[in-house]
Design brief:
single chain; about 260 residues; alpha/beta; Rossmann fold; 2 domains; 6-stranded mixed sheet; 4-stranded antiparallel sheet; about 40% helix; binds adenosine-5'-triphosphate; binds magnesium ion; ABC_transporter-like_CS; ATP-binding
Length: about 260
């Protein structure tokens, strides 16, 4: 579904991503792991149209989408969530969902701010959709809460919910599990699985929580120092000496777990 072909990107003298190629197959939940600074988020930024690559191509269902801006990719069904959630803290949870379609129309932040009340008032369909999303994620009770008051984990759920307000078919999740407690993590994983199974979403997931990756993802891609060093299922990767070396070598917080 998403073909990443020999993507490279440098920041000054630092080669953040080097000649990375892999495919995210339609209907898969593909993992992307690697120590801090491996280049994972940079690669996501490139795929999501937020950052131009120095070289290489990105294809979405066969179509070359390299360099297309984020809002055009939204319309093609490719969306990304961020490592750090960026909700509108002074709007309610439901309003945060309802504003998504307006923002997708390519409207500026200011414009969507000025118009959200209009959306809320006028578009019953969007209201209904937002309520369905809240129900799906089992956070209907948080509907009228200010988004700024949510816990880190609840914000991650809201972030996932926002992708459900789009016609997303391919979703890039950057560390959905970061800072999420065990209970919410289970819920988040379940929501991702259900979206994949029941609604045909394809996912590519960056995550340091190896248990979450092992539960959700197959295959898993491993990056280190900007390069793709291995791919396969999690059980096999845990035994891969090069992968173990990459993790041990940096003393990163996310270990590979017991072999
Ligand atoms: N905008 C930028 N300007 C300069 N350097 C950057 C920029 N973005 C990323 N880098 C550098 O590129 C490298 C790759 O960063 P990136 O954020 O892609 O890593 P990551 O794999 O997502 O790491 P983490 O797991 O910590 O989120 C790092 O050395 C980082 O400091
Ligand atoms: Mg990152």
């Amino acid at each position: 579904m998403i073909e990443i072909e020999r993507i490279s990107r440098a920041f000054g003298g630092l080669q953040a991503v080097r000649e990375v190629s892999f495919t995210v197959a339609e209907g898969s939940i593909t993992g992307l792991i690697g120590p801090n600074g491996a280049g994972k988020s940079t690669l996501f930024g490139i795929v999501a149209g937020a950052l131009p690559p120095d070289s290489g191509r990105i294809r979405l269902q066969g179509e070359d989408i390299t360099g297309l801006p984020t809002h055009e990719l939204f319309h093609k069904g490719l969306v990304r969530t961020f490592q750090i959630p960026h909700e509108f803290s002074r709007m309610t949870v439901r309003e945060n969902l309802m504003i998504v379609p307006a923002r997708l129309a390519g409207e500026s932040l200011l414009r969507s701010w000025l118009q959200w009340w209009k959306v809320v008032r006028e578009d019953r369909a969007i209201l209904r959709q937002a309520d369905e999303v809240l129900e799906f994620l089992e956070i209907s009770h948080l509907r009228d809460e200010l988004a700024g008051n949510l816990s880190g984990g609840q914000k991650k759920l809201l972030d996932l919910g926002r992708t459900m307000m789009t016609d997303a078919k391919a979703v890039l999740l950057d560390e959905p599990g970061a800072g999420v407690n065990r209970t919410l993590l289970g819920k988040l994983a379940e929501a991702i699985e259900r979206l994949n199974r029941e609604r045909g979403y394809t996912f590519c997931v960056i995550e340091h929580d190896m248990d979450l990756i092992a539960r959700l993802c197959d295959p898993v891609m491993v990056m280190a120092n900007g390069e793709l060093i291995a791919q396969g299922d999690m059980a096999t990767l845990r035994e891969n000496p090069q992968v173990r070396e990459a993790y041990l070598g940096t003393g990163t917080s996310g270990g590979m777990g017991a072999a």
